[in-house]
Structure prediction request, 199 residues.
Amino acid sequence: MAVFVSHWYTPDRTTALKDLDEVTAQWETAEWPDDILSFSSYLSDAGDTVLTYAQCASATAYRPFTRSLAGAACAEAVEYRLHRSFVPAGAAAEPPGCMVAASFDTDGPLRQRHVIEEIIGTVGREGPYAQDGLLGTHFHSSVDGTRVLNYAEWTSDEAHETFLRDACSGRARAAYEAIPGVRPIGYTRYHLHHSAVRP
Prediction:
């Protein structure tokens, strides 16, 4: 499955919401190609960043389709493949309260795999306390080898903030910062604005 992710910065929340409403309106009224399966849009908690996330059965349809749209809806996207997911044992079966997107700049596929396995291994070893509130974390590798995206779903903003203060977060950070050819870009916390699946 191909995943296309785009994001852009806005001067304020009002502009971000305007962009999101315009993008949503175009996706709701356009006829989707067969290969596009779902589309979601998000607003950052700071109100200054918009992110879109589309899942496709193949990589062929997304770019031609978005080029037919206008404005922010045709923003350039990075193409990813889902590499691996981690769902804690006993994770709550509930809709996410927030999504956290953490990105890494990487020097090729080997470094992509290395940083993914290192983070999953560190968090997995910590046990339920460190994972409290984590519904699942889904690691994506860009097809050009230059990016890793950690798409993590949490029960709430507060649960994610608690994790950041926990020692597990520090150990995970120390682990990936020690990997040559991997450079953390940072993370942004988002809230879902709109989601649609193939009609």
Remarks:
- Strands lie at 2-9, 36-44, 49-56, 78-86, 98-106, 134-142, 147-154, 182-197.
- The two ends are 18 Å apart (CA to CA).
- Residues 39 and 123 are 29 Å apart (CA to CA).
